[in-house]
Amino acid sequence: MIGLEKAEKTASKRFYIESYGCQMNFSDSEIIASILSAEGFDATRDAEHADLVLLNTCSIREKAEQTIRQRLTEFKRIKRERPGMLVGVLGCMAERLKGKLLEEERLVDLVVGPDAYRTLPDLITEAETGTKAVNVLLSREETYADISPVRLDSNGVTAFVSIMRGCNNMCAFCVVPFTRGRERSRDDQSIVNECSELVERGFKEVTLLGQNVDSYYWVDPVSGHAVDFAMLLEKVALISPTLRVRFSTSHPKDITDRVLHTMAMYPNICKYIHLPVQSGSNRILQLMNRTYTREWYIAKVKRINEILPDCAISADIIAGFCTENEEDHLDTLNIMRESDYAYSYMFMYSERPGTLAAKRYTDDVTPEIKKRRLAEIVALQNQLSLDSNQRDVGKVFEVLIEGDSKRSAQQWMGRNSQNKVMVFDKSKDGVKPGDYVQVKATACTQGTLIGSIVE
Ligand code: SAH
Ligand code: SF4
Ligand code: F3S
User: Fewest CB within a 10 Å sphere: which of 86, 139, 166, 437?
Assistant: First the structure.
């Protein structure tokens, strides 16, 4: 009876969720949506009509947090008109600032950290009585393994699947170990089950997510049987030959030849590796506590090229870390050329409170110099990306169609195995999103291959 009353009480409630930061956060929002829909909440795309507004936040750089604060002031207006609406801050910023958020941002009713989403229904009930509700406990076990995510804003073709949570590395610049807690892997069987269900529902591509996928390690509590990342990749690849498998993120210190050989063995494991370098200078890499050298990194890139000759590599790069000088910066530009990245995500260093770098070093590169170095890094990457795309013109790729291209409903957009975006005319009848087509690249920009379907 109690259950029924609760269902009736909450049946017509609507939640609105906005996600920021990395793919793991977007994946968490799908777990949150699942927990809320089991409580009778419906998702809405319109914050103005929501009973519960949730921001799943990111703390990685100061700017990410400023964006959230800006969004919160915008919600103040809606809340003034509809005082019953609850506003919750979830994710990494909730974890970092904890109860402080309730004092700083007076309109916030709920603060929930990344390991506490199962308690959301209770916290909402608490907040409905006017009490501010907070749960930012981190866990050593929580992986939400049994929760079947509700796919939000899905194209019905590609999906993200979390395989682990947290991070045990201590990169000096990074806030993630503090906001996400200790690393833990998810039961391999629950991962395979989730991917199989996606296949049954018509999905054609999964991206396995973790901050450091190469340290995935699950030991079955009953059989004692251990599964590492190479074995997990194989299990997922074997679900269906028409299911594409991607993963992110690899750490240069941990990616093994076994993973590369597994990728080589299965055509449906995409030939693309995101391998963040951060810096090309040994001195800076050591200060960053990345635990590899420039030489080690370049050797890894060589191994990838040997074992997987058609594999694309991308990177994350930070400009202007503490004490970085011109020579260090030139080392970064150099390693970019040597690695020949297909593309990169490039950032100015942003000091985060509580990190090793904030405690030990001075953020002494001026904003002007950071900006100039970042601009040089971006300019070089633009050139590398264009060169890489130009080398692909004339080649034929298998492309998984994801949907209409952004520019025109007359064109499809999809990706090749190397994760490059391809755009091409809808020249063939009966083709739809989720289909594989052969596309010949005929031209390119720095960000896109333009092509046409070949038989
Ligand atoms: N787990 C992944 C990525 C984590 S965060 C990895 O280990 O590579 C994504 C990227 O944000 C990082 O790779 C890094 O390039 C960037 N980043 C992290 N902290 C930063 C900071 N304090 N300032 C600027 N960029 C940062
Ligand atoms: Fe942050 Fe380093 Fe962990 Fe990546 S590996 S999440 S950069 S601490
Ligand atoms: Fe941001 Fe947290 Fe991801 S800090 S990058 S949302 S793990």
Answer: 139
347 membership: H or E segment, kind and range: strand 343-348
From 113, 135, 157, the end of a domain falls on: 135
Mutation choice for ligand 2 from 211, 215, 352, CB with most ligand atoms inside 8 A: 211
Domain extent, residue 414, equals: 396-454
Contacts of 51 (CB under 8 A, 6+ apart): 13, 14, 15, 41, 84, 85, 86
Q: If you measure from the C-alpha of residue 178 to the centroid of ligand 1, how many angstroms do you get, rounded to a whole number?
A: 13
Q: Give the ligand at the shortest distance from the Cα of 316.
A: 1
- The answer on pLDDT for 106 being more than 90 is no
| Residue % of the chain over a pLDDT of 90 | 92
Q: Which atom of ligand 3 sits closest to the CA of residue 24?
A: 3
Does the CA dihedral 393-395-396-402 come out positive or negative? negative
CA distance linking residue 159 with residue 26, whole number of Å: 11
Which atom of ligand 1 is nearest to 175's Cα? 19
Q: Is residue 181 part of a domain?
A: no
C-alpha 451 – ligand 1 centre gap (Å): 34
For ligand 1, the distance from its centroid to the CA atom of residue 60, given in whole angstroms, is 7
Does the C-beta of 177 come closer than 6 Å to ligand 3?
no
Indicate which ligand has the atom closest to the C-alpha of 59: 3
**For the whole model, what pTM was predicted?**
0.95
Q: How many domains does the chain have?
A: 2
Query: Ligand 2 atom closest to Cα of 170?
Result: 8
Task: Provide the residue type at 336 as one letter.
Answer: M
Which H/E stretch holds residue 90? strand 86-91
The last residue of one of the domains, among 135, 164, 182, is: 135
Which DSSP state fits 278? B
- The count of other CB atoms within 10 Å of the CB of residue 274 is 20
CATH number at residue 49: 3.40.50.12160
- State the pLDDT confidence band at 107, using cuts at 50, 70 and 90: confident
